Q: What sequence folds into this?
């Protein structure tokens, strides 16, 4: 095992920026709006928020506690804290999840490059294409078609995927986060500003109100049809969006300095992540309703709605260009955090150099990603897998911290050796011992059951 000096985040803000950089990404801007749209809006949002607070934050704190106390990757961390036990299998489960998530996520990240390039093209040939003089309906159908022919095609998604993979690997090889931390601090706030501009445009569209009602007014009759699916997808999305349940934040936790307040960090990251998701929803849904787009469109929702918003803005193409550029960057700060899990595992547990570990990881993820670009079925299965895999990982993580790790150790980590007050401690213990494990176990069981039923209806 290599035990040299480990990289460290240089400041408190650096930690939050990096962890928020991991959390904030396509999960907020692409996945969140379409999952909300498919699951009926406000009622889903309410359940989602509850899961973030009652399960997400405790899981995140638990990951930080494990990572920082062990100073190792997820597999090594469990081996060190619980030697001779099988807990390290959780770490391995995380590494497997990392492969799957990275594969489909990088494919979607590649789509931002397609839209980036298209924006430039429209800008250059705008008189020929007539983007700005099209009606919203025309733009909408234009993009629906473009999206479909692009995603169904073979080469373009593949090329963009490979390019994104390459960027990700390059950043991970060329040393830890320093560079990224620096850019994330500037670019994430810019992304937020751009989103706010979009929100403003979207909210001032005629018919925007409908969208607000859809997003914020919980109407539980919308989830009556398939309550199980809704609840499970809310849990899965909460895990996915916070980057928890697979050891990313165990790995990042191992880079956090001893004096940093873990609870504070977790709450700030979760708040920032949730805020951005809601802002993305505020940008998308008013426009969806104003332009008569189907909120249940699925993964294409954002990719067909955004262009219509841009078209309705003056200088829309420039906005589009900036937006997709920043979205691409936001995706990168997430992909590197997923790749980091695999690389930390390969290099620390299997004794590879960082470079070799990265290349090996990229090649294997590359293979999976290529399959995702070729087959939409494969893509959908991968895209749905976090809903079960991440909660499963999260279950073991909270059980480990709640029932296995000694209370002294947990208190010591959370308080940084007595430096911080931990008046929330009993609530935390209650959540990680009982609430989170029971809720996840129940939902996971029901989720597996419902998927089996949909595969083999005769079981019902
Ligand atoms: N949370 C990121 C997003 O919302 C995606 C992501 C990064 C992730 N690292 C992760 C998801 C680890 C699950 C686990 O875009």
A:
């Amino acid at each position: 095992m290599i035990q040299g000096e480990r990289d460290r985040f240089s400041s408190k803000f650096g930690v939050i920026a990096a962890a928020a950089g991991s959390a904030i990404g396509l999960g907020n801007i692409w996945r969140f709006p379409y999952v909300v749209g498919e699951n009926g809006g406000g009622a889903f949002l309410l359940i989602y928020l509850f899961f973030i607070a009652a399960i997400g934050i405790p899981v995140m704190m638990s990951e930080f506690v494990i990572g920082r106390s062990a100073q190792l990757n997820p597999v090594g961390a469990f081996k060190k804290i619980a030697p001779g036990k099988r807990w390290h299998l959780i770490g391995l489960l995380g590494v497997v999840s990392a492969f799957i998530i990275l594969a489909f996520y990088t494919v979607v990240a590649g789509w931002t490059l397609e839209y980036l390039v298209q924006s430039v093209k429209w800008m250059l040939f705008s008189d020929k294409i007539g983007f700005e003089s099209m009606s919203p309906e025309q733009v909408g159908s234009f993009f629906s078609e473009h999206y479909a022919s692009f995603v169904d095609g073979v080469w373009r998604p593949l090329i963009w995927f490979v390019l994104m993979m390459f960027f990700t690997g390059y950043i991970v090889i060329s040393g830890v986060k320093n560079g990224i931390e620096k850019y994330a601090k500037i670019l994430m706030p810019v992304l937020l500003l751009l989103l706010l501009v979009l929100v403003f445009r979207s909210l001032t569209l005629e018919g925007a109100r409908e969208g607000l009602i859809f997003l914020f007014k919980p109407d539980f009759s919308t989830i009556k049809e398939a309550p199980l699916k809704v609840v499970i997808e809310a849990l899965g999305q909460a895990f996915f969006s916070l980057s928890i349940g697979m050891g990313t934040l165990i790995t990042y936790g191992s880079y956090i300095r001893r004096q940093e307040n873990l609870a504070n960090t977790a709450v700030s990251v979760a708040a920032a992540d949730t805020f951005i998701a809601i802002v993305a929803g505020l940008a998308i849904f008013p426009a969806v309703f104003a332009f008569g787009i189907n909120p249940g469109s699925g993964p294409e929702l954002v990719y067909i709605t955004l262009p219509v918003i841009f078209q309705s803005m003056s200088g829309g193409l420039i906005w589009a260009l900036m937006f997709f550029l920043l979205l691409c960057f936001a995706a990168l700060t997430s992909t590197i955090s997923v790749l980091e899990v695999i690389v930390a595992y390969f290099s620390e547990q299997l004794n590879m150099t960082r470079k070799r570990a990265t290349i090996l990881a990229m090649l294997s993820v590359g293979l999976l990603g290529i399959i995702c670009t070729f087959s939409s079925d494969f893509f959908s299965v991968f895209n749905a897998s976090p809903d079960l895999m991440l909660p499963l990982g999260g279950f073991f993580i909270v059980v480990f911290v709640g029932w296995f790790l000694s209370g002294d150790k947990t208190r010591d980590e959370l308080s940084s050796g007595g430096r911080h007050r931990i008046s929330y401690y009993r609530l935390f213990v209650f959540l990680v011992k009982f609430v989170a494990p029971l809720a996840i176990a129940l939902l996971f069981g029901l989720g597996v059951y419902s998927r089996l039923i949909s595969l083999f209806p005769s079981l019902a």
